[in-house]
Amino acid sequence: FKPPNTKLPTKHTLPGVKNVILVSSCKGGVGKSTVSANLAVALRGIEMKVGLLDADIFGPSIPKLMNLHGEPRLTDRGKLIPLQNYGVQTMSMGFLIPHEDSPVVWRGLMLQKVLQQLLFDVAWNDLDVLVIDLPPGTGDVQITIGQLLKVRGAIIVSTSQDLALIDVKKGISMFHKVNIPIVGLVENMSVFICPNCNHKEHLFGDNGVLRESQRLGINYLGSIPLNRQICADSDMGLPIALKRDSTLAQPYYKIAGIVK
Ligand code: ADP
Prior knowledge:
33% of the residues lie in helices and 20% in strands. The protein is of the alpha/beta class.
């Protein structure tokens, strides 16, 4: 007996890519793209050959974070050649639309087509790890990627706020449904240390991500403070992980060490 409609789409590996790591968040604005860019830079820092794919097609921020602009060239076979900075091969929807400030208004088929192109028509060159920055939430794009790609694991970025943690469970169950292991949870914006008086403030709650990881039996990959330098360097297109000796870079190197 074979039950009907239970066939899942075949999962593909990507040519030129050994491992795929997804970076996801269940809410927007928790720092997913910042983690993706810094993780890619940190992996490069530990001698991995790294690619970064910005699949956040509605709000691509990787071009700015990696200080990369311009249109990708094509290979003889019509594949997109990634742009490169800081030793990280990078591809983003942001390179395929004419201006940074033009809204992405494509829907349905057009979106599917662009996504297919970003997933399957990029000429990655001999990567140990491809980091994919997913859109926030648990929508069609995330599920499509989860169903189509062979993925080593997913990292979920969250703050410790209850509002964010509620959605983390949704994210975890989505990855379970498409058979993707969870590498672990990253707590972003964990603590703010006042530069004047050194007072520590847990703006979004104290240890919420750690407690949730323990409750769900999932790895806790560490915490990243809310820090002005991380924000300012991001705006200049200089991921903080480039400053390898900075204490602010250490959380990203820790995660890199885990996923390498
Ligand atoms: P998401 O991809 O989840 O939407 P982003 O990575 O774009 O989030 O980050 C949202 C904003 O927060 C950006 O302005 C970014 O520079 C800032 N940000 C992210 N992480 C930190 C941090 N640890 N400290 C300070 N600012 C941060």
